[in-house]
Amino acid sequence: MGYTEDDLAKDLENSEYKFGFTTDIESDKAPLGLNESIIRFISAKKEEPEWLLEYRLNCFKIWSEMTEPNWAHVHYEKPDFQAISYYSAPKQSKKYESWDDVDPEMKATMAKLGISMEEQQRLTGVAVDFVMDSVSVATSFKSKLKELGIIFCSFSEAVQEHPELVRKYMGSVVPATDNFYAALNSAVFTDGSFCYIPKGVRCPMELSTYFRINEANTGQFERTLVVADEGAYVSYLEGCTAPQRDENQLHAAVVELIALDNAEIKYSTVQNWYPGDKDGVGGIYNFVTKRGICETNAKISWTQVETGSAVTWKYPSCILKGDHSIGEFYSVAVTNNFQQADTGTKMIHLGKNTKSTIISKGISAGKSQNSYRGLVQIHKNAANARNFSQCDSLLMTDECGAHTFPYIECKNPSAKIEHEATTSKIGEDQIFYCLQRGISEEKAISLIVNGYCKEVLNQLPMEFAVEAQKLLSISLEGSVG
Amino acid sequence: MISIKNLHASIDGKEILKGLNLEVKAGEVHAIMGPNGAGKSTLASVLAGREEYEITAGEVIFDGVDLLEMSTEDRAREGLFLAFQYPIEIPGVSNINFLRTAMNEIRAYKKEDPISAKEFMALVKEKSALVELDAKLASRSVNEGFSGGEKKRNEIFQMAMLEPKLAILDETDSGLDIDALRIVANGVNKLKTPNNASIVITHYQRLLDYIVPDFVHVLYNGRIVKSGPKELALELEEKGYDWIKAEFAE
Q: How remote is the C-alpha of A387 from its chain's centroid?
């Protein structure tokens, strides 16, 4: 007997989460629960200026008056916001002078993640800002970037060193009033990344940050702010894995991208949060607000490969404010076992001759539910706006589900909007064809799935594409090494 | 090369092959003809190892080993190649990547080192010329957006690359115009050596003008009911299959 889909299904179930381990580092933790004094605690811990504390308190007030949304095609137990600790930092108080000073255990964690920093620095030339439990522990390549006037640092550092930039842009794309989780994040965020590329500068390397949830019951509320000044270019990579946990861990990040006139931002994500075990126990809730704004002639590309999380709820979006601006969204979302994903994008066309492209590839396995939800909105002044959307779903089993919810709102008659959607089951004929050429079943599935996702994977920077392919294989083949 | 004895196979409980016997030796070309529904494609599928078919009796010895005991991919790795009647599209996977993966899997099975990129590309160039396959098609996705003729040429190209011991061509002539037919047939003829063999399954005699068989067999109702030299094909073309049906009706 050959390798059947039933075997595949079994393999998928048994494929244990590869990055499930925890690091034992004493942490400095806030008591459970959320109230004004917790927010004051966080702000004080981070030695923040008064304006930021006020901002947080205001956001907390806004959040307190909001109710949790439930329109997504996902079902989960609502988090108890009073049972979460909102701050946790590794105890080392001083920053590391050199790589040698970094806690060996932390180094080991990074090695397990396959992101040994020395190696990354030496081999790939990627500057890594490693965030473990909310506080950034190591930053590299800073001096090189500094020469070009590029700022790439933890969010906390940016608050201290570049308060004017943070104050100007934070909340300008995703206001606290935007949604429940954005408001929560704005009130309690502990750290994240900040990046500023000055006028006319092309960032010579891929900027990369790894996030990792480490402390049980610690919600992570990152904040990322990327500003590309006029004519600047940056490619930003974000990737994450998390240790295995039984409790659900809430992850509600906010990412804001600002592309000023003629600027371009490429934002790539490989997301591999712990998805829960094969019975659907545990796993990360990933409720993220990601949005970018394009001024005249600017371009923002979102590329995401989503394989993790118990529940994913996110829509990296583009506000195409300036004339001739371009928004792109490329996504691969894999769900397995009991994972649920409701993801897609919003393309808001405000300016004339604005263009957007949406390529979404969903892969559902096990008993998972995978939904694409996208909005294309053409405002009345957006003459000659164009959108092309393609939403494909690939089903691996009979028990999973794929759903597509495209919303199109068009108020300008000169707009051109195209939408294509397909749903297919992984073809037995395709697998047989590969087998007949001597290719093993496992390799055949990997080939077919990678081929299916190719348009998206091609958008990723080289080193990330390799990692993403590995992730797809791990997520779908049960070939855990 | 291959020895098929008393092969019985069924699908969904319905018996299609009912005691088929066939002997093919190295260096030979065998044509299998027959009316629709005789079991021609079933024979190809069963030999290649499609799982929907249940083998209820018989044996198949391929180059000294029991073929029916082998997995589909191992049959391919042992040198059995099926040119599909309807080649499958694999979007996003380039022909070259597909073939290189196949070739290296076969090499690994034989405990050989993977082929170098340089060697591989040289081989692609050489073999694509053989079937007049546009070099561009080699780098496009497997069969995606190919015309019917291009798909069939691509099958022969793959065959040329993988150099099988036994090639089974399942209605390779269907859907081909006369020029494409000539190109495909030429490719097959050029690949012929004293050490390999092919089984050409076809509905019409036409293909056999170009690929001259050593033997022609008539498959009817799950059995080879008549075998003869290449002239048998002409006789069939002239008289149709009705006389066979009349003679061998159940």
A: 23
